[in-house]
Specification:
Number of domains: 2
Strand order of the largest sheet: 1-2-3
Mean pLDDT: 85
Helix content: 55-70%
Strand content: 15-25%
Shape: elongated
Largest sheet: 3 strands, antiparallel
Order of helices and strands: HEEEHHEE
Length: 138
């Protein structure tokens, strides 16, 4: 059979668990419905180099704003209140920075990882059934 496409193996997917970039797939026989195994693959980020640069610049800008607000918070609220405000500003900046630099994964990245996971178990768990045009459990 030629290159495996997601649409071809979708009937074999019993469950998908995505944790960050890791995709764990539980496989089943599409005829019997019986679960036959699991495998794991890693997604590739959907972001381009330009997107990564833009995110880094945005993150740097946020942290510059945060740094400039810290002394103002200390002057405005005094030593104790300023520390509380500075902590809140810093943590808000950290959340924004982390979100701006977080890797993004597309549905296509997930599907590609599922296909890669299938490739690792295909020969051990499945055989191509020409009549049904499906991979069925061995």
């Amino acid at each position: 059979m030629a290159k495996i496409l997601y649409d071809t193996i979708e009937p074999n997917v019993a469950d998908v668990d995505v944790q960050d970039a890791q995709v764990e797939v539980t496989w089943k026989c599409p005829v019997s419905g019986k679960v036959v195994g699991k495998s794991v693959a890693t997604m590739q980020s959907g972001g381009t180099a330009a997107t990564e640069v833009k995110n880094r610049v945005a993150s740097s800008a946020v942290m510059s704003v945060v740094a400039s607000l810290m002394p103002q918070a200390m002057r405005m609220f005094g030593p104790v209140g300023g520390q509380v405000a500075a902590t809140a500003i810093r943590e808000t900046g950290n959340v924004i920075r982390n979100e701006a630099t977080k890797k993004r994964y597309s549905v296509q990245s997930e599907h590609e990882a599922i296909v890669a996971a299938f490739e690792t178990v295909k020969d051990d768990l499945f055989v191509w059934n020409e009549d049904r045009e499906l991979y069925v459990a061995k």
